[in-house]
Amino acid sequence: MRVVIAEDSVLLRAGLIKVLETSGFEVAAAVGEADGLLAAVRAHRPDAAIVDVRMPPGFTDEGVRAALVMRHEAPDVAVLLLSQYVEERYAADLLSTRTRGIGYLLKDRVADVSAFLDALRRVASGGTALDPEVVSQLLLRRHRGPLDRLTPREKEVLSLMAEGRSNAGIAAALVVSESAVAKHINGIFAKLDLPHAEGDHRRVLAVLRFLGGET
Asked: Is the peptide bond before 57 cis (omega within 30 degrees of 0)?
């Protein structure tokens, strides 16, 4: 798997390169600013890009804005955002443009190498991977709309879906059967008005609704 890294911290960038290369990934480029990210993606067409939210020169949302441009120019390239703090609107911004191949992790999560690599692989394969802390804050802030129809257990299941977990992973986390998880997920789809339709990725649509990117 070919990866491009956009991270202004020299130490973190070097650490990411080492972790990825020792885990079998090919690091096609590693840059320290947003314009460099776009140039690297255009040159190498990687499978995924790991992008710091805040980058030079303003250290506000340069990484996210570059990622949005990248998603327009190279929609097949997955994006895994890294942030020092929870800024969940950025994940929603990206999900509002395309609902597959998106991840958002806090930088502290990179220290758990296994979890970080699992999230990267999941995103690169077209899934989602949202940091549990982001999910937790979203649940606290979403008080109105279709989410109010969900039971507490269904909200737990949806939050784990937002983290990118499979039915088996959700079942293990909640200590229930996979059939019980499937039942809860079907209930979520119904309450969020997500009827089955050919080609729809309802798990991702449910997460998008959860993020507030779709009304």
From this structure: yes
Q: What are the structural domain ranges in the chain?
A: 2-131, 142-211
Per-residue pLDDT reduced to its tens digit, 8-54: 999 999 999 999 999 999 999 999 998 899 999 999 999 999 999 88
Backbone angles phi, psi at 127, to 5 degrees: -95, -165
In the sheet that holds 78-83, the strands lie side by side as 26-31, 2-6, 48-52, 78-83, 102-106, 128-130
Burial class (CB in 10 A: 0-12, 13-18, 19+), 197: exposed
Q: In 3D, which of 52, 8, 38, 44 has the Cα closest to residue 25?
A: 44
**Highest CATH level, class, for 142-211:** mainly alpha
pTM over 0.70: yes
Domain 2-131: homologous superfamily in CATH = Response regulator (3.40.50.2300)
Find tokens 């320290």 and name the residue: 32
The answer to whether the beta carbons of residues 109 and 80 sit under 8 Å apart is no
Are the CB atoms for 181 and 167 separated by under 8 Å?
A: yes
CA distances to 6, 7, 9, 172, 203 from 14, rounded to whole Å, are 11, 9, 9, 34, 35
Q: Look up tokens 């690091």; give the residue.
A: 27
